[in-house]
Design a protein that fits this description.
heterodimer, A: 313 residues, mainly alpha, B: alpha/beta, 6-stranded mixed sheet, 4-stranded antiparallel sheet, 11 helices, globular
């Protein structure tokens, strides 16, 4: 280095001078937490994927639009009930038969199902289409671990999406009334009912949506199939049940896939919601309705598990 | 683990798919180092790797890695890495996020997984690109991410299935350098499958040759590429004059690419070559005993095999 070049260099004191060392490759000597860490990682990734976190803005749009619509429905219900309580009287919402917690899933179930139909394939289809599943299964994770973790992740998301509007509605009803504390004391039983009904609809929707996604690598095919399944069975079974009537009509009505968890919701709240009030299946016994629900949740879950258990890259 | 101790053993491995025998009573052992599985497409390389990884069950026989059966012990897989031949990368996520996730799935705690992901991407030459979504990556970059995800949890042994597939010559050379580095600098043993003989010859310490699901050859690469009695000479100019000078001294000369191949039964041939070089005034660029190439070995083994392996 010439004197001129040396002069051009900024002065750096020895205390502030830094040196970058390439220490080369370092072996990993930390802990290996095994199968539980692997399951947790797949679970966390499933939640992030379903909600679009860590993805581009386009991946966030659909889930959050649906969540927004579901919350907006609850917000409108809370505002209407609050206004009625404030301007008509404390029991106005009940007297006017305004929709409340027991009616929410009946009203919003189709939007909820579409949310699941769009979201569930994101958790399973790309892993098989891109071949990422091969990388999972050579790690300390079995195919059962994988699919159970994915199921758990989507169940968590659908449960939160099912509960959030109900709690928005609950807070709205508590705060909208003239005596919030008294309302909360009088209606505390709604909380376990909301949790139970939310869990029922979330488990049912998660299982059916993931099952459809397990049979195709194309997200769009799974989504269209699921939306068709939920939307088409409603007018089809309703029309046929009304035409035929009697016990056969009741059983045909049972095949309205949108109503299956709503019947359970009705049993939990002890009230028939607007949607199921016209379904002949509501006249069947509680054990049949609950058994039917479990059949449509447990059997698809079993098929989903077998589908992945047999999977070999 | 000593270098002589077997990392992996396969005993009479057989895999049948209905009427097709993908592997037929294959037995081999692999110790520390870089081992190549060489064979044509359909020779059973990928089937062998999948059985060793525990992804599929053999029809008969057994395989152990680090003393454990991978289909029975899931935990041993935290010591294994696998780079598949085909695409396995989600396009919508960044390489950093993907590797962090894969490290966690391998059992590493989240904070350590993030550090390992960054370090591994640096070693794979993708540090600057780590926050870009992988859909924008070139084929070479994708291959590097595939290798990085196989190394992110610091396995004891890594399985590389056709790591140079789809790469141009420069990319292929870079990938082979990384594979060599994986063992020599990182200390991770490698089992590499390829149908490219040159890749195996330049990269591996040992080879296992499969043909039609059967084990044809196995051993040290140096064993197959021993020195021959041929001396290879390359000169800058006056090659023809050198040929004349050599023939005048009774030396059998043949052209070999850009150079000359001289048959020499003993070291006296070097003196004759020296005298011929002086006489022909040919500037010597290179002179060395020629090693046998793996290619020649398989040309002798038969045309069937030669047809399936790219040399």
């Amino acid at each position: 280095m010439t004197m001129q070049e040396k002069a051009a260099q900024p002065e750096v004191s020895a205390a502030h001078a830094g040196t970058v060392f390439d220490i080369g490759y370092q072996r990993y000597t930390g802990s290996r937490e095994g199968r539980n860490r692997a399951r947790l990682a797949v679970y966390k990734d499933g939640i992030r994927t379903a909600l679009g976190f860590g993805r581009g803005s386009r991946a966030k749009v659909l889930p959050w639009v649906f969540i927004g619509v579901l919350v907006a429905i609850a917000l409108v219900m809370a505002l209407v009930a609050g206004a009625a309580q404030r301007f008509v009287g404390a029991d106005a919402a009940e007297q006017l038969n305004l929709p409340s917690h027991s009616d929410y899933y009946g009203i919003a179930s189709i939007i909820f199902f579409v949310f699941a139909a769009v979201g569930a394939p994101e958790l399973l289809c790309p892993d098989r289409r891109d071949g990422v599943i091969n990388l999972y299964l050579v790690r300390p994770l079995t195919s059962s671990d994988y699919v159970i973790s994915r199921w758990g992740a989507f169940f968590t998301v659908t449960l939160m999406v099912a509960l959030l509007p109900q709690f928005v509605l609950l807070i709205g009803l508590i705060m909208g009334g003239p005596d919030p504390v008294q309302y909360a004391i009088d209606n505390w039983r709604d909380v376990p009912r909301i949790l139970g009904a939310g869990a029922a609809i979330a488990a049912y929707t998660t299982t059916l949506a993931l099952l459809a996604a397990a049979f195709t690598t194309r997200r769009a095919y799974a989504s269209v199939f699921l939306v068709g399944l939920f939307v088409i069975t409603t007018p089809f079974t309703t029309g046929m049940a009304a035409e035929i009537g009697g016990t056969v009509g009741q059983w045909i009505s049972m095949f309205n896939l949108s109503n299956i968890p709503v019947h359970v919701n009705d049993l939990i709240f002890g009230e028939v919601s607007d949607v199921t009030s016209v379904a002949p299946a509501r006249e069947l016994s509680a054990s049949i309705l609950v058994g039917w629900y479990f059949l449509w949740t447990v059997v698809p879950a079993g098929i989903l598990w077998i589908r992945y258990w047999r999977l070999a890259p | 683990m000593s270098s002589l101790e077997a990392l992996l053993t396969a005993e009479n491995l057989t895999k049948r798919y209905k009427d097709v025998v993908a592997l037929n009573e294959v037995t081999f052992g692999i110790s520390d180092g870089i081992t190549g599985i060489l064979g044509e497409n359909g020779a059973g390389k990928s089937t062998a790797i999948k059985i060793l990884l525990g992804l599929i069950h053999p029809t008969s026989g057994s395989a152990t890695i680090l003393g454990q059966n991978t289909s029975e012990s899931v935990m041993v897989r935290s010591q294994l890495g696998y780079m598949p031949e085909h695409d396995c990368l989600p396009g919508s996520v960044t390489a950093a996020e993907f590797l962090t996730h894969m490290a966690e799935v391998s059992g590493l705690p989240p904070s350590r997984a993030r550090t390992r992901a960054a370090d591994t991407l640096r070693h794979a030459g993708l540090f600057e690109e780590r926050y870009r979504a992988m859909r924008g990556y070139s084929t070479g970059m994708k291959q590097r991410v595939k290798l990085a995800q196989a190394l992110v949890h610091d396995p004891t042994i890594v399985f590389l299935d056709e790591p140079t597939a789809g790469l141009d010559p420069a990319g292929r050379e870079e990938m082979l350098d990384l594979v060599r580095k994986t063992h020599r600098e990182f200390g991770i043993s490698v089992l590499l499958s390829s149908h490219l003989m040159a890749d195996v010859e330049r990269t591996c310490d040992r080879i296992i040759v499969l043909q039609g699901g059967r084990l044809v050859q196995s051993g040290e690469v140096t064993h197959f590429t021993t020195e021959t009695e041929t001396v290879f000479i390359e000169v800058d100019t006056n090659r023809d004059a050198l040929v004349v000078a050599l023939e005048k001294r009774g030396v059998v000369v043949a052209t070999d690419g850009a150079g000359l191949a001289v048959e020499g039964p003993d070291e006296s041939v070097y003196d004759l070559v020296r005298d011929a070089l002086v006489e022909a005034e040919a500037p010597l660029r290179r002179m060395a005993p020629r090693r046998r190439a793996l290619t020649e070995l398989f040309q002798r083994a038969g045309d069937d095999f030669k047809g399936g392996v790219v040399t």
